[in-house]
Amino acid sequence: MGNLGWLFYKKYYQNLSDDDFRLLLKENQTENEKKSLTTKLQDNINELFKPIEKVVSQELGNIHFKATTTYPGLLLGSGYNHQLSIKEELILGFDFDYTTGLPIIRGSSIKGVLRSAFKHWEYIAENTNLKTKEEIKQLESEIFENNDIFFDATIISSGKILADDYLAPHGDNPLKNPTPLRFIKVAPNITFRFDFFLSDGIISKQTKSKLFQNILEDLGVGAKTNVGYGKFESFSPFKTQEEENQEKKELELKKEQERLQREKELEDLRKVRDQKAQGITQLESCKNIKEAMKILNDSLGKKTKPTPEQQTIIEQFWKKHSKKASKSEVKFFKKFGL
After folding, report:
1. Which residues in the chain land under pLDDT 70?
2. Out of 3, 158, 224, 261, which could bridge 54 as a Cys pair, Cβ 3.0 to 4.6 Å?
3. pLDDT at 152
4. CA-CA-CA-CA torsion sign (298, 301, 304, 308)
5. Are 61 and 151 in contact (CB under 8 A)?
6. What pLDDT does 83 receive?
7. What does the CA dihedral 237, 241, 247, 251 come to, rounded to 10 degrees?
8. Is 94:209 a contact under the CB 8 Å cutoff?
9. Torsion-angle region of 61 (φ positive above 0: left; ψ -120 to 50: alpha; else: beta)
């Protein structure tokens, strides 16, 4: 799969010879001539709609999130010239990254969309919990005039990312059937990664990120947002490889600390049990069966298999006092094999 930008602006015209370009200037083309031009161009157009492999680009800044295009898709760079007046050609220009050849949302466009929302201070207040126009003006200055940086948004999806669509202008006669005009767009369900370098200020950089997501979701970006293009959904944090590695290390460290804590708690519990178990020697001087039962419960808990030394002490006590035991006391001592 070639560079999409090169395919669209260079290879798009490669199959057309000098005679073809002269034919384009001819006022009355025959149907066969029109068909020949369209066929040559269509072969190149088809290249644009082939699936691409996932492209890994460098993450920039300190805040990243991803979002997915909705129907009908996304228009970028439609004001660029790209037209030969051939049937079924792609009439609008498009904005591709020069290096990767993939569609790209320029950081300047993102910045412009975000700043346009500040014309509506009530909207900003609702999304930031700021209360006054003065606070919102301060926030606007912090974001757009100080240290915050807006990087280009890049595609992180794989597969078929471009699709075609049609305009149907009626011209001067609204009753006349329109001639559909074909153009390309970023297809729905394509995921972009948005990168920023944001600073804490009147609000935190995390709150700024959430504000940016809300604005992009509500206003959209690119051309024809008023008819549904350029909208996004499924906003979620994007973690860089470095952040994922750091998170993995922190998780492993947390698990190790929890393991050591559990071992310490078990060791402390064993010490307490050993200390209690040593209390069984009090039976040697004990003359009350109920008191002896309490000593055994405190020392052994639900444990019914004392050590041989403890068993000997229990048997000696029972031998001395069993004749005075009630039925419940006899039942209690039976669990020690007596």
Report:
1. 1-2, 25, 27, 54-56, 81-89, 169-177, 239-241, 243-244, 272-279, 302-304
2. 158
3. 95
4. negative
5. yes
6. 64
7. 130
8. no
9. left
User: What integer pLDDT is reported at residue 1 of this predicted model?
Assistant: 55
Residue 70: in which H helix or E strand, if any? none
Helices within 129-240 (DSSP H only)? 133-145, 205-219
- Give exposure, 95-115, as e/b (b: 16+ Cβ within 10 Å): bbbeebbbbbbbbebbbebbe
Q: Are 22 and 55 in contact (CB under 8 A)?
A: no
> What letter represents residue 306's amino acid?
P
Domain boundaries, the chain: 4-238, 268-334
In this prediction, residue 196 carries a pLDDT of: 96
Specify burial of residue 69 (Cβ count, 10 A radius: 0-12, 13-18, 19+). buried
193 vs 64: CA distance, rounded Å: 7
d(CA 160, CA 269): 61
In angstroms, the CA 149 to CA 311 distance is 76
Q: Both tokens of residue 161? A: 């990312």
Closest by CA to 104, choosing from 152, 60, 137, is 152
What are 115-121's contacts with CB under 8 Å, separation 24+? 115/140, 115/143, 115/144, 116/219, 117/215, 117/218, 117/219
User: Closest by alpha carbon to 83, among 73, 98, 94, 75?
Assistant: 94
63/238 Cα distance (integer angstroms)? 8
Integer Cα distance of 164 and 157 in angstroms: 18
Residue type, 318: W
CA–CA distances in Å: residue 26 to residues 20, 89, 104, 180, 201: 10, 17, 37, 22, 63
Which residue type, as a one-letter code, is found at position 281? T
- Cα 81–85–86 angle (5° rounding)? 120
Q: What is the pLDDT of residues 103-141, one digit of tens each?
A: 999 999 999 999 999 999 999 999 998 989 999 999 999
